[in-house]
Amino acid sequence: MSKLRVAIVGASGYSGSVAARLVAAHDRLALAFATSDKLAGASVAVHLGTVLDDRQIFLPNAAALDRADACDAVILATAADISMRLVPEFGVRGKQVIDLSGAFRLDAEAYPRWYGFEHAAPDWLKRTHYGLPELFGSPPAGSIVANPGCYPTAALLALAPLLRDKLIEAKGIVIDAKSGVTGAGRQSGDAYSFAEVADDLHAYRLLTHQHTPEITRGLARTGEPRPSSDVQVTFTAHLLPLKRGLLATCYARPRSGADAKRVADCLAEAYAHTAFVRAVPPEQVMLKRVVGTNMAHVGATANPDVVVAIGALDNLLKGASGQAIQSLNAMNGWPETTGLDALQRISP
Amino acid sequence: MSKLRVAIVGASGYSGSVAARLVAAHDRLALAFATSDKLAGASVAVHLGTVLDDRQIFLPNAAALDRADACDAVILATAADISMRLVPEFGVRGKQVIDLSGAFRLDAEAYPRWYGFEHAAPDWLKRTHYGLPELFGSPPAGSIVANPGCYPTAALLALAPLLRDKLIEAKGIVIDAKSGVTGAGRQSGDAYSFAEVADDLHAYRLLTHQHTPEITRGLARTGEPRPSSDVQVTFTAHLLPLKRGLLATCYARPRSGADAKRVADCLAEAYAHTAFVRAVPPEQVMLKRVVGTNMAHVGATANPDVVVAIGALDNLLKGASGQAIQSLNAMNGWPETTGLDALQRISP
Amino acid sequence: MSKLRVAIVGASGYSGSVAARLVAAHDRLALAFATSDKLAGASVAVHLGTVLDDRQIFLPNAAALDRADACDAVILATAADISMRLVPEFGVRGKQVIDLSGAFRLDAEAYPRWYGFEHAAPDWLKRTHYGLPELFGSPPAGSIVANPGCYPTAALLALAPLLRDKLIEAKGIVIDAKSGVTGAGRQSGDAYSFAEVADDLHAYRLLTHQHTPEITRGLARTGEPRPSSDVQVTFTAHLLPLKRGLLATCYARPRSGADAKRVADCLAEAYAHTAFVRAVPPEQVMLKRVVGTNMAHVGATANPDVVVAIGALDNLLKGASGQAIQSLNAMNGWPETTGLDALQRISP
Amino acid sequence: MSKLRVAIVGASGYSGSVAARLVAAHDRLALAFATSDKLAGASVAVHLGTVLDDRQIFLPNAAALDRADACDAVILATAADISMRLVPEFGVRGKQVIDLSGAFRLDAEAYPRWYGFEHAAPDWLKRTHYGLPELFGSPPAGSIVANPGCYPTAALLALAPLLRDKLIEAKGIVIDAKSGVTGAGRQSGDAYSFAEVADDLHAYRLLTHQHTPEITRGLARTGEPRPSSDVQVTFTAHLLPLKRGLLATCYARPRSGADAKRVADCLAEAYAHTAFVRAVPPEQVMLKRVVGTNMAHVGATANPDVVVAIGALDNLLKGASGQAIQSLNAMNGWPETTGLDALQRISP
C-alpha cells in the first residue's frame, strides 16, 4: 500500500509541528517534506522528537511550491496572508489542500475589518469547505479545506445543535473562552515569557477578536441557514497559564421548551454517532480529559433565564491539526479515526 | 500605644492563616490567640512562616469562647454553620466581630435554598454590615461585619458603578468567573490533588453557586435600592490551575448612552479616591498585577450589543482577609491602609 | 491476525491507566480486562479517554486471577506486596507477566531493609529478568519481567555505559533526581494537594529511598559484574511541581582518560542503534523533549574533578508502562517500537 | 524622623523592582528615585503595583549619577560591567552603596575567566564587604556591599557551618541547585517563553556557571581561612518551571565524627540567634515555606558515605533584594528585620 505524500508548510510553529508529528505517525501518510525558515537545514526527527529516520531535514518555506511535485497533499500552517496566496497555487496544481489559517473561513467582505487586508482570491473562497466534520460533513471532491479556528470549533460544537433544535435564541449569545498559550501560536517577547504568563489570567482582543465573525457565520449556517446578521455573538478570549487546552463557556437565552434535560439530550443525540465528540454533564467538561487527544467534550444545562453550554478540546489537535487529519482521512475515504486513535491523554 | 488584641478562629485554613499573618505584621494589632483543631499545640510562628516569637501555639477551636476575655476583636474563619453560632456569642460579649463565612451575607429566607440550613440568628442579620468599603462604606458603631465573598467582591466592584449610573440593565447579567484553588478553602481528596488540578480548567456548581444571591443582593442595594427580584444574574465559577487570584468577566446589556468611553470613565470616577481599587483598561485587568496585594483592578468597555466589565483580585486578600483588615481599620478609626501597604505583589 | 490478550491489574493508578491506554492503542494487543477496586463497574473507555467501545467495564481486583484464562499476558500495576503474591500465580498459569512494582527487582535479602517485608517468593526472583532492554537485553523465554523503577531507568541509562567503559569510579556516585508528582503514584491527602505541590520543590525519603539498592545492583551488573558492595551511590529524589517527567543529574569521579569528549562519545556509541535512547549534549537533556514519548535522552560532560551525566524520561512511559510494552514486544518477537511510535511529545 | 533616601538604578528588572517595592514599604526609607531605560517616564506606583503616590516616574539610567545628590544610598540592580563602573562613582560621592551584581564578589584575577572582562576597579574590590550577614557579619563603616548571588547564599548558608565545624571535607563538594526563572533576570526570547519553560527542567551553564568561584571563595573564608584552591566545588544550576524560589541540595564527604545528629545540631546552633535563617529537618526545606519572605531554611543529614545539606530561599528576597535591605539596616544601625517582617509567605 503506497502512502499519501503530505507536505507541511510552516512546520516550526506549534500547529505545524503537531501536524508533522501526526503525519509521521499515520499509517497511510508519509511526510513528503516539511518547511520552516527558522529550522531550515535542521533534522526533522530531532525537532519532532519522534522515532523517525534522522536524515530528513527542514526546507526553507520558499522551496515549498518548487517541490509541489513531491507531494499529493499539503497542510498549510502559515499566517493568513501567506495562506491566501499559497492555497490557490497548490489548488491549481491539483493537490489536496488543508489550510490551518483564517484566510478561507469568512466571506470576502469580512476580511478588511477582521484581518486587515482585502482578500486576494475571492473566487477560491467559494471552493472551500469549512472542515468541521461533525457539523458540516465531509469535504466535497475537489474542494480545499479551511480548517476551523480553535475557539470556533469548541463554541460551535457546544452551541450549534442547540440553535438548530430551536432551544436557544440566535441573538444575545455570550462566549467566554479560555485558552492555553499555544493557541496564540509561537510567540516570543516579554508578553509570552514564563514570568509574565505563569499564575496570570487576562482577557485579550476584547470585542475585536477575529474568531467572532467565524463563529457567527458558523452558527448562521447551522440548521435552516439564516443571514449572519440574524446571529449576534459576544466573544471573549482569555490567556490561561497552561500550554494546551481550550474551554468555551457559552451563555444563550432559552427559547420555549428549553430546560436542563432537553439541552443535555440535544447534545447527546447530536454526537451519539461521532468518534471525536462526546456529550457529558457540563461540570465534567474538563481540559484534562481531552488534552493530548482529538476529542472534544461538550455539555449543557439550563434554567428559565439562561442556557449554559460548555465545550473543551486540545487547541492543537481537535482545534487545529488533529481536525485537519480528520478531513484528510475523509477526503481519501479512510476511517475517520485513522492516525488519531493512538493519541494519549496527557493527564494521567 | 497598646495594640488591639485580635483572635483568629479557624486559623489553619487558607483565609484564616492569611488573616493571622496580617494581624502578626500589623503595627496596631496583636495576635491574641489563634485556634485550629488540626494544628492545636503546634507553633503559630512556624506555621505562619513569619518572623515571630516561637512560643505562641494554636489552641483548639473549642477554647475560643472561653478565651474571649483575652481578645478585643475576633476574625472568624469558620464554616457558615459554625459562624452562625459564634457570631452572636462574640457579639453579646461586646467584641468587634468580622465573619469571613457566608453566614451573615444574605437575608434569612435565602439560607435554606443556598446554604442548606435555616438561619438560627435572624435578628443578628439585621445588625450586620456587608463589609465592602468602596461600595457600602464603613461599619456603623456596634455592627458586626459580614466580610464579602471573593467572587462577589470582584463582580460587585466591576458592575455596581455601572448599574448605579444607569449604564447597564439589571437583568440578563452574565458573570463568568475563574478562581485559583485556594478560593475553595483547604480541601483534600483526589479532586484537589496536584495531578487533577494542574493543566485543567472546568466549571463547578453550575447555576447553583451560593455567591449568586450575594451578588444579586449587592447589586440590588446599589444606587437607588430595588428589590432583588429586579436584578437577574447568571454566575459561573471555574477552577483555575493556580493558587491565588480571581478574575470575573461580566457581561451586561447596555442602556442608552453606554459606550466604551462612558463605561471606562464611570469606573475611573467611582474609584478615583480609593486606596485599594484601581480602574485600568479592561485588557490590563490581570491576576499578576494584584495577587499578593490588597488591590482590586477593574476595567470596562462596550459596543452597542454589550458592556464587558472585568474585575480581578487576590481571593485571600481583597477577596477575604485583606478586606477584613480594611474593615477592622475602619472600625477603629485608623487609616484604611494600615498593615496592608507593605504587602508585595508576587509577580516580579 | 489475532491479538495477544493483555490484562491490567490495578488500572486506576497512573501507571496502570497509561498501560491500559497503550494496550488499547496497540495493533497487536487487545485489552482482555482491566481491574480496579476504585473504578469497578465504571466504563474503561470513559476513564481512559480514548476512542474505544464503551461497553468494557473495570472489574474488581479480586477477579483478576479467576479471569486468568481470558488473558495471555498480564501487566501488574499493583503495590509491591501484592505483586509479590500475584506474580507466581500468573507465572504458574503460564502467562507472560510484567510487574511494574519493585517486588522482583532486588535480591531477596534486600527486601526487609528497603521494602519492609521478607520476600515470600525468593525462588521466583531467580526467574525474573530486569526489563531495561538497552542495558540488559531481551527477556529469556519463560522469564517474568521486573519492570525497572523510573529513577533507576534514568540513572542507569546515563551512568552504566560510563562505568562499563571505565570512565568513572564505582564509588562516590551522587544521583540528584527530580520527578513530577505522578512518579509517586496516585496519592490523595494534603501533601499532594495542588496548593501544597504547586510552586514548591523539596527532597523526600532522603538516604532511604528504595530505588537506591536497585540502582546499585544495576550498576554492579554492568560490564564485568562486580559485587554490589563495590558500588556506592547516594541517591536523592525531589518532588517537582509538574505531572510527568523525571530528570536525574548524576555526578561521578573521573577515571584516567575521562574528559568531556570521551564521556559524550561513550554515550553516543552506547545508544547509536537504539530506538528509544538518544545521546544529546547534556544541557539539552530536557523534560519537554521526552515527556509524552517513550524516549530517554542522556548526555554527559566532564572536567578533571567530576563527570556529570544527565538522563531524562517520562516516568509513566519509558520509566514505567512504555518500557513494559517494549518488553512485551520483545517477548513476542515484534518490532520494539510497535505501539510506541505514535506517541506524541506533549510540549508543542 | 527623616527617612534615608534610596535610589534604585535598574528598577525594571526583577530584583530591581523588588528592591524598589521593599524601599517603598520600609518605614525608615524613602524612594529617592528609580531608573529604568525601559520604563523611563512611566509611573513607578503603577509599575510596582503598590499603594503609593502616582506622581513619581522612572528616570533614564543615564540620569542616575547626575541625581546623586538626591540620595543618601543607592542599590545597583545593573549588569556586572555597568556596576563595575558605577560603584566607584557613587562611592567617591560618599553614598552608601549596595551592588546586586557579581562585579565586586570575586578577586580581581577571577573576572576574565568567569565574567569575561578585566576588572576596571581592583582597588575598590578591597573596600567591599560580602553582604551575607549570618556568615560574614555587618559591613564595616565606609565599605560598599557586594550583595551575594542567589545560589551562593543558599549553598553557603547550608554548607559553611559544617565546613567550619570540620564535619565535611573541603574537596569533592557537589551542589545541585534548582531555581525559578526570575533567577535568570528578566529575559525575553524563545528560551524563556511560557511554552518552553512550563513543565520543563534542564541544567544550564554546566561546569561554567559564574557562581562556582563565588561559592568556593565563600567557603574558603569560612572558619579558619584557607586558600580557595583547598576547596573544590562542582556546581550545577537547573531552571525550574516556577517564578520564584531556589533550592540547593549539597553533597559533601563526611569527616570523622559527622553523623546525622551532629550535622543537624551544627546548623541548628549556627542559626539559633538569627532572624532570617531557620534550621529544620532537611526534608522540610521547601520552597513554599520561604517564597515571599526573607527567610532561608536549611537542613542536613548524613550517613557514613555522605553529608547532605539543603538550603532554600526566595531568590529575589533573601537571594537578592531582601538581603540588600538587611545590609542597609545594618549600615544604619536599625534592627535587622526593619521593613522585612511584614513580608508574607506566598503559599497559603
Folded structure, characterized:
The structure is a homotetramer of 348-residue chains. Chain A is an alpha/beta fold. Chain A contains twelve helices and 13 strands. In chain A, strands 8-9-7-10-13-12-11 form a seven-stranded mixed beta sheet. In chain A, strands 2-1-3-4-6-5 form a six-stranded parallel beta sheet, sandwiched between helices. In chain A, α1 crosses α12 (317-331). The two termini of chain A are 36 Å apart. Chains in contact: A-B, A-C, A-D, B-C, B-D, C-D. Chains A and B meet through β7, β8, β9, β10 and β13 of A and β7, β8, β9, β10 and β13 of B.
Key attributes of the depicted protein:
homotetramer; 348 residues; alpha/beta; seven-stranded mixed beta sheet; six-stranded parallel beta sheet; 12 helices; 20% strand
How much of the residues of chain A is beta strand, in percent? Answer: 15-25%
Overall, the morphology of chain A is globular
Mean pLDDT of chain A: 94
Helical proportion of chain A?
A: 25-40%
Short description:
The structure is a homotetramer of 348-residue chains. With 348 residues, chain A is α/β, with parallel strands linked by helices.
Topology, element by element:
The structure is a homotetramer.
Chain A: E1 4-9, H1 14-25, E2 29-35, H2 44-48, E3 73-76, H3 80-92, E4 96-99, H4 111-115, H5 122-125, E5 128-130, H6 133-136, E6 144-146, H7 150-164, E7 173-179, H8 194-197, E8 202-204, H9 211-220, E9 233-239, E10 246-252, H10 260-270, E11 277-279, H11 287-290, E12 296-303, E13 306-313, H12 317-331
Parallel strand pairs in A: 1-2, 1-3, 3-4, 4-6, 5-6, 7-9, 11-12
Antiparallel strand pairs in A: 7-10, 8-9, 10-13, 12-13
